[in-house]
UniProtKB/TrEMBL annotation:
InterPro entries to which the protein is assigned, alphabetical: CEMIP/CEMIP2, CEMIP_beta-hel_dom, G8_domain, ILEI/PANDER_dom, PbH1, Pectin_lyas_fold, Pectin_lyase_fold/virulence
Signal sequence range: 1-22
Species of the source: Plakobranchus ocellatus
UniProt keyword Transferase, yes or no: no
Residues of the G8 domain: 38-157
SMART domains for the chain: G8, PbH1
Lineage, uppermost ranks: Eukaryota, Metazoa, Spiralia, Lophotrochozoa, Mollusca
Subcellular location: Cell membrane; Membrane
Protein name: Transmembrane protein 2-like
This protein's UniProt keywords: Cell membrane, Glycoprotein, Membrane, Signal, Transmembrane, Transmembrane helix
Topology of this chain in the membrane: Single-pass membrane protein
Family annotation (SUPFAM superfamilies): Pectin lyase-like
Predominant cellular place of this UniProt entry's protein: membrane
Disordered: annotated span: 756-776
Amino acid sequence: MNQAGWMLVSALVLGFLPPATPVCPWEMAELENWSNVDTWLPGEIPATNASVVIPAGKKIVLDAPIPRLLTLTINGTLVWGNVDGIRLETSYILVNGEFHIGSEDCHFDKTADIFLYGQSNAPEMVSDFGRKFIGAASGSKLEIHGEQKQSWTKLVETVEPVRMGSCGYVYDSRDENLGTRLGLHIHVWNFDGTVYDTHQYNTAGTSGQKKAKNMVKYIAGTPAGKIIAVAVYRTMGVPSPIFDELYTSIESLGGWKIRDVEEFEPYVLLAETGNTSNAIDNLNKRYGVAGGLDASAALPIGDLVFKVTSISYNTNYFDETIFRVVHKVGAFPRLSFLHNVSSWHKGDEIVVASTDFDWKQAEIRTIVECTDCADNQVRVDGDFRYSHFGEVTFGVDERAEVGLLSRNIRIEGELQDQCYNFTSEEGYLCDRFKRDTFGGHTQILKGAFARIEGAQLRYMGNQHEIAQYPLHFHMCDDVPGQYIRNNVIRDSNSRCITIHGTDYLEVSNNVCLNHLGHGIFLEDSAEQNNTIHRNLVIGTQHGNLLYTDRHKDWCEIREYCNLLSSIWVSHPNNIVTENVAAGSDGYGITLTFSDRPLGLSLQRQKDRGLYQDRSTRYIKVKDFSKNVIHSNKKDGLWFDSRVSYGQTEDGVFIPENAKIGLNYYSPREPPNAEGQLVETLLEELTLYKNDERNSWLRCGNVAIVNSSFADSRISYLAAHSTAETSCDVRHSIFIGQTANKGEPLTYIFNDPQFEHLPKSERPRHHFDQSFAEDRP
C-alpha cells in the first residue's frame, strides 16, 4: 500500500476525516428550475403580477430573472440560485416553508435584490404580518447569508478637509466674497485651475427673464476648452417662456436633468465646454423631505479635480454653492484603518462617523480604485467637509468609526415620491415627517428559525404601525443559534433592529445609519440573555410610535416623552458589549426598565412562570462593557427613569410606554426586595463629545470602572436611587479637552436654529471633581 493509502487508513482508524466540502443550497437534490415550464402547474411560468404559491414538498431554485409578482407564498422551499443580478419584486414574501439565499457554510457571493412595493391601503396583506413584508411564520426557516465583509472599523489617522493652506488646495469659492444671489451660479476655470470667470444670475428675481437671457448669451460666448460649473442656489424661480432657451443652453453643456429641478432642490453641472462626453450633472430630488439636501459633482482633469456642490434647505437659509479645485491627492484621499478591509471593493459606500458634537458631520463616500493601498487602506471619491479624528488622545480612544454601507444582498422597501394619506393618522405623519414613511419590514414569529447576515436593508420600517421594523424577532421566546449579524440597515422609517419578547438572540456587527425612533430596541422590558455586540449606530432621529421616541414638543404631557436612544436596553439581564452609539438627536444608550413586562410580554411571562413584579429593579446588569458613546445631542449614557406599564402613581394614571419617574434601581442577590445588595459594574466605557453630559446615572450600587470620559461640559453626574445605595467611579480618567478640536467656530450661537453647527469650541466646560461627603 502506498503512503497516501496508509495515511487514509490511519485517519479512518483514528477517527479523523478531512473536512467535508459544504453543500451550497443551490446544489441541493430535487431542486426544480423556476424558469422551467415543467416546474409549474398547469405548465405556465408565473407571469407579471402573478400570486405565486410554492406548494409544500416542492423545491424550486430561482435560476433566472423573473417579472414583478403580486405576492409570493413559500409553503415548500425556494432557493436563490447561484446567478448574478436577479431582482425579485413583490408586495410580500410569506415563508411557511424554507427560503434560502446562501447558507452559513456557503455564503452567497453574487448580487441579489428584493424589492417590496405597495401603499398602506394595498389589499395584499396577511394576518400577523400586515403588508409589504418578508415574514417567517411558525415552523418556517429563513436563511440569508451574504458575502463576509469587515462590517466596520476605525480610522488610525486623522482625516482633514482640504482647505486654504493645506496639501491639495488650489481654489475654494468660500475663500472669496462672491455674494449669494438666488438662481444660478457659474464658475469657469482654465485647465490649470485658475479662474477664468464667475457669474451669478438671479433668475428668481423681478428681472429674472432678463437674467436668464444674459446667462444663455454667456454660455454661448464661453470659449471651448474651459471647465464650466453650474449650481442652483436655493431656487431658479418660477419658470417662464425664456426658461426653455435657458434649459436648452444648459443641456448643450450636458446638463440633461435641469428641466426636472424644482424649488429648493440642489442641482449641479460640471463639463468641459465644447465636449459633452465627460459632463456630469446631479439633481437631488426633495420628495417632500424637510431640511437640507446636497448635490455634488467632481471632474478629474489631469492632476486636478474640479468640484461643485449645491446645498439647499426648505426650512431656513443655510443654502450654499461651493466651487473648488483640488489636487487629486486631496480629492481622492487615502484612508487608513485599524482592520484589514480587503473585503471592501471599488464602488462600495462607506460612512465615516462624526468625532465632534454634531453627529450630522458623519460623511458618506464611495470607494475608488487604489493602486497604492495596503490591506487596511482605501481611497474615496471626495475630500471631506469636516475633520474626522483618528488618534488616541490623553488615553481616550476618539478614533472615528467607519462603517461599510454596501452588501451584495439588497432588500429595499418602496417609498412614494410624495407623501400620501388615507387616514387622519397618516395625514399627521405627512405633516410631521414631510415624506412617505410606509416602508417594508421583516418579521420572524415564534417557532420560525432565522439567520440573517450580510444583507443591506434600505427604506424599511413603518411609522404607521408598531411591529413593522427592518429586522424584527416578534414574541419568539428562546432562539439560541439564531442571529442578525453583519447587516446594514439604512434610512429606516422605524428603528433598526427590534428584539420583542425574544431571548438568546445574537445581534452583532451590524451598521445602522439614519432611522426614526430607537435604533436597537428591546421592546417589552422582558427580553433577556440576548447578545448585542459590536454594532455601530449613527443617526437616531425622533419617531412617533412610542412616547419615548417622540420629541417633547410633540407631546401634550412633555415629561412622558423625549428619551430617544440609539440602543434601548429595557432589561438588565442582557449582554451589551463593544457597541458604538455615534450620533443621536437624543441619547446614546439608555438603561431604562419597567416594573413589569409590557404589552404582550406580561401574559407571556406569566404563562412561562417567569413573572415577578418589579424584578428589573433588583437584577444586576449582566454585562455592559467596552461600549463607546459619542456625538449625541443629549446624554451619552442614561441610566434612570422607568417605562410605565399603564400604572397610577401619586393618583395620576400614566399610559403604557410613557417615561415615568426615577428608576429605584437596587440590585440584589437573590433579585428581590429581601435580597442582599450587590454591585453592578459598567466597565471599559468610552464617552466623549456628548452635547449635554457624557453620562447621567441614578445609581443603585452602580460602579463605572476602567472608563474614559472626555470633551463634554459635564462628564459624570449621578444621584442615589435609594437611601441605602451608592455610586462609584474607579480606575477611570476624565479629560476636560483633548487634542480632538473638531471644527472651530468663529461665532457661538445659543439659538436653537443653529443647533446643527459644530460646537467643539464652545466656552462651556464645567469640570467638577467634587464629591458629596464620602459618597460620590
